[in-house]
């Protein structure tokens, strides 16, 4: 009964937050046109604060209903997912810059992208939990995947500009619908001479969804190492994703200042991968995992700020 109430509360928070964002889409575009950028920035800070407060604050009812262990699992999973989701922001910047998407329309793309990401991640999480319950040895494969991902991240060269037309997402989209990039439309699909075309906006949305798909393949195995509880994994994951849109507008353009972000996330994924591989030999407690994740975040941000200065 208590778990059902938590599910209902969680669903109500998510639906209410998304509805406000969706219904305020026209207002949001008008606000950005009629107000100073500084005022718009304040709105995004408020939204970021609200989503982070809701995400962290949700640990309170979890504590009173399930106790300390589940609370630590939730906070650790939330901190891990939030940290890994920040890496998405750099790719979002490259996508919007490469396609020339205006600041006004980026809000709509990210909002619909997040809605798609929520359904996609829930499906992945349910599948991942079911696999681990049926085949426990899958934890070793997921651990190896995380370690491989961390090595790939540290060796991958950074691109200053994304060649969007050569990406898999655009080539895949072209198989189903022709793309019209002659002008920037405010709609996802336009009709010309009786034929439907995908606009640059739809290309951006599809690219954002494919980006989240790739990152989900890394982040969801990582969070499975923290908890096997479906409720904990889904709620922490969705709360981390929900604040991503407003967080993008707050730090997205300045994320290049976090010069050691890649190294911090690499260490984080490597640590979780080792935790999964050693799970049968030596179990690292969730509280210790939380401490390690927080230390990595603090060091990453601190060293980045010192380096930039």
Short structural description:
The protein has 13 helices and two strands, in the order H-H-H-H-H-H-H-H-E-E-H-H-H-H-H. The protein has 309 residues and is an all-alpha fold.
Key features of this structure:
2 strands, 309 residues, single chain, 3% strand, globular, mainly alpha
Strand content: under 5%
SSE string, helix = H, strand = E? HHHHHHHHEEHHHHH
> How many β-strands, per DSSP?
2
Number of helices: 13
**Helix-strand category:** mainly alpha
Question: How would you sum up this structure, described in words?
Answer:
The protein has 309 residues and is mainly alpha-helical. It has one domain. It contains 13 helices and two strands. It has helices at residues 2-23, 25-34, 37-57, 59-66, 68-99, 103-134, 138-155, 168-174, 200-224, 230-242, 244-251, 261-277, 286-308, and strands at residues 189-192, 195-198. A two-stranded antiparallel ribbon has the order 1-2. α3 (37-57) runs antiparallel to α10 (230-242) and α3 packs across α11. It is globular and about 65 Å long. The mean pLDDT is 78.
């Amino acid at each position: 009964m208590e778990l059902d109430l938590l599910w209902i509360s969680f669903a109500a928070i998510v639906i209410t937050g998304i509805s406000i964002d969706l219904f305020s889409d026209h207002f949001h575009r008008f606000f950005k046109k009629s107000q100073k950028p500084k005022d718009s920035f304040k709105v995004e800070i408020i939204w970021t604060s609200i989503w982070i407060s809701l995400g962290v604050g949700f640990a309170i009812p979890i504590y009173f209903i399930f106790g300390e262990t589940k609370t630590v699992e939730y906070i650790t999973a939330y901190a891990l997912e939030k940290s890994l989701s920040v890496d998405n922001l750099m790719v979002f910047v490259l996508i919007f810059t490469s396609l020339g998407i205006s600041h006004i329309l980026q809000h709509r793309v990210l909002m619909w992208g997040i809605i798609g990401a929520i359904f996609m991640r829930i499906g992945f999480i349910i599948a991942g939990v079911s696999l681990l319950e049926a085949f426990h040895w899958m934890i070793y494969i997921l651990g190896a995947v995380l370690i491989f991902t961390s090595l790939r991240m540290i060796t991958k060269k950074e691109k200053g500009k994304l060649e969007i037309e050569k990406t898999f997402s655009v080539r895949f989209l072209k198989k189903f619908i022709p793309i019209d990039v002659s002008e920037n439309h405010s709609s996802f699909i336009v009709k010309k001479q009786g034929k439907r075309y995908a606009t640059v906006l739809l290309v951006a949305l599809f690219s954002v969804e494919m980006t989240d798909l790739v990152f989900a393949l890394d982040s969801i195995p990582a969070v499975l190492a923290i908890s096997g509880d479906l409720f904990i994994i889904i709620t922490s994951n969705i709360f981390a994703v929900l604040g991503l849109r407003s967080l993008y507008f707050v730090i997205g353009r300045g994320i290049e200042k976090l010069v050691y972000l890649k190294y911090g996330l690499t260490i984080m994924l490597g640590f979780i991968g080792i935790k999964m591989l050693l799970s049968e030999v030596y179990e690292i407690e969730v509280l210790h995992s939380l401490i390690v994740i927080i230390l990595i975040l603090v060091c990453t941000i601190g060293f980045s700020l010192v380096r930039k200065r």
